[in-house]
Amino acid sequence: ETVDVIASEMQWENAQAYIINISEHLESPEEAERRKQQEHIEKKYAFVYSHSCETIIDINVEKGNVHYTVIRKDDDSNSVENYKEDDYSDSFARWVRKYVHPDDRRKVRSVFSFDGILKNISRKQSEAKMEYRCIYPDGTMRWKEAHGFYIDDDKSYVIARSDITERKLAEEAATLNKKALYTAIFNVYKKVLLVNLTDDEYTILNADDSEELYGSYSTYLNVGIENRYRPEDVDAIRKKFFCGNLLAEFENGESHVESETRRYNDAGELHWVSVQAINVHNDYDDKKRAIILIRNIDQQKQTEVVLREAYNSAESANSAKSD
Question: 3-class DSSP state for residue 188?
Answer without folding.
Answer: helix
